[in-house]
Specification:
mainly alpha
Length: 110
């Protein structure tokens, strides 16, 4: 596991990157996975990373596992990379926004 100082920095970076609440993320994952023919059970909506982010948002810092820490680093890195990505046409921006929202980051929020 990482030391306390590094954990504090990761915790802050993660919560800065994930700017959606757990309720907002859970609702987005359910909407994103729903289609005309089927809708997943609420606890099964979204991809593995989205589910991991949702679980992390519902934990205390002291309850984090090694897998949680890896996920947090991945989310922080993904959000940083996407924030630096060049802007494209509106359709591309919408897809980019929706991909980021599946891991808890809404780029339209300040």
């Amino acid at each position: 596991m990482i030391d306390a100082l590094e954990m504090d920095a990761l915790w802050e970076d993660f919560h800065r990157a994930v700017n959606m609440t757990s309720q907002e993320l859970a609702a987005w994952l359910r909407v994103r996975d729903a289609d005309e023919s089927a809708e997943p059970l609420p606890e099964q909506a979204g991809g593995p990373t989205g589910q991991d982010v949702l679980a992390i948002l519902q934990k205390r810092r002291t309850d984090l596992t090694e897998d949680d820490v890896r996920c947090m680093y991945g989310v922080v890195d993904t959000v940083a990379e996407q924030a630096d990505a060049a802007r494209g046409p509106e359709a591309q921006e919408t897809l980019r926004r929706h991909r980021l929202m599946t891991i808890g980051h809404d780029p339209l929020r300040p």
